[in-house]
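Hi V.,

You were right to ask for the full record rather than a summary. Here it is.
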Amino acid sequence: MGKKRSINTFTSVSRKITQGYGRGEGLSYKPWLSGHEFASRGMYIRLWGRTVPRLYCFMSKVEADAFVVYDCMPDVSDLLEQYYLTLEETLEIADELHVRHPYSGKYYNPLTTDLLIRKGDIWFARAIKTSRDLENPRIIEKLEIERVYFSRRGIDWKIVTEKELNRDLVQNLNWLWYGESPDTVFTDHHLLQEAESFFCQLYFENTLPFPILLDQFESRYTLPPGSGMCVFKSLIRQNRIALDLEKPMNMLNPRQPRERSNPDGRYRSYC
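Predicted structure:
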């Protein structure tokens, strides 16, 4: 293992362990790395969670893209980014594997996993990397420590790269789930229900070009431009309008045969 190093971390790291960073669940979870620490390491992407309504932080675009996909899976109930792996155990694993544990100066650095995902009562761990990362032997060594760590706990662990992510799906989910809510357009709930039914009638019972359909809908309710698209997205999220989100979106003509590909009328996606 080379030069002997202390398992005592910097004061700030010890304080974070005491304060519960990298631990917890749901809204109470605090990721190991904070916003300013992300920024100091380069790219810093923040996203508002859909499954758990809190702010998430990511150090790369591929991490953010993977989060969007998992966050929209219907059976996912929690997602934890930058989850702390017990330092004493990762040191033990590194020693067994005969690889160097990450360190700074004379101190060992804690390892984290990029994303911990809960489905029902089962947790899954995912290391989110670029395919280029996997060409780096040092990164592979650290991933092996992580793999063994979760294997000891019987937790499914996998590496996910940009090659496993459907680009059209990521783009469509970002479009679908992020943006204005129809509740901000219609403050009256009953009026919103009426408007949604009218939109469905226009969509399914007419052959109007989609841009004209949006204009007619907005004129009917005297709405500002963009309000029709907001309602359209809400209806997709409710499964009242079906689209195949794994294929490119055609906003000039979203009524395509592929939207009816599922027998139950729902779009085939991770939402």
